[in-house]
Write the structure tokens for this entry.
Amino acid sequence: MYNSKIAGLGFYVPENVVTNDDLSKIMDTNDEWIQERTGIRERRHVVKGEDTTTSMGVKAAQKAIERAGIDKNDIDFIVFATLSPDYYFPGPGVLVQRDLGLKTVGALDIRNQCSGFVYGVSVADQYIKSGMYKNVLVIGSELHSHGLDMTTRGRGVSVIFGDGAGAAVMTREEDPKKGVLSTHLHSEGEHAEELSLIAPGMGKRWVTDIIGDADPEDTSYFPYMNGQFVFKNAVVRFSEVIMEGLQTNNLTPTDIDMLIPHQANLRISQFIQKKFGLSDDQVFNNIMKYGNTTAASIPIALTEAWEAGKIKEGDLVVLAAFGSGFTWGSVIIRW
Ligand code: UT7
């Protein structure tokens, strides 16, 4: 048995900055509402044709591999988390294998939305723990902007989400007291439709149905979110799963050096911070700059926190996520 650790981190966001004021020119919204309810000031949107979910993931991965100080041919396995894949199938994992020019290593796609990166870290951790793989590349990447309803009808969702990618190279750690100490994953499918994109899917409406109906009122191919219901569940599940991780390792909230919550809403992060009595130095948020980037939000935030020197060797780092599914999870890391 080994432990796993994060050996290299990288992120990539498209250059195109979209401010709240920019959005207020195309839909009935305003900077005050968005900042007050979510904390978001701006987000990045891919300019059509310039990037895809895969290409952003590849750029983040290249940085992570470089920082891990390994050769790309030492990657044993790819895990790719996204809700916005380039193709309906195959998933982006194999496209990363191709575009990075890796050996024919396995590639796994994860569909756990905002919890995708946490699920990915958990999978990589288990493969490394068992000794099956030594270096696993975990990517979270999202291109939301092209699939959102950018009219007043969709404003409850479209102002929140942004594009970007983050990646981590996870590798073997020989010291059992260091690296990933535990991961905790949960789901509650009873609430699957409360934050979802129903079509195109085999269950309800397929592409031919959508085209055949050509119904301008059809919103089934845009994401739907019951915001207040999701918010209420998020604060409870975030708290539970962080405590579960701490208790498993005989730790308490005072032991946390850095909490990286999934960047869903600044108000959710602030609620958690207050509940656990953490200072501003113990929680990292960057939703103000990037909005909610779903599977990419934790690796982007983790990379930025690390680049800013806010994570040092020996620190207790906690990752926590909640989102569509519902799914949620946490990762406890001794850096
Ligand atoms: O990452 C996955 C997990 N996601 C989350 O955890 C998100 C959780 N939910 C939230 O963060 C919040 O519920 C939102 C930020 C999405 C919404 O905030 P809210 O305080 O729950 O607002 P609401 O949806 O109840 O809407 C309040 C009002 C409504 O108007 P009326 O009915 O009161 O007249 C909306 O139509 O705000 C209106 N509204 C907007 N106004 C201006 C909704 N979106 C906008 C907008 N600009 N973009």
Summary: The longest strand covers residues 3-12.
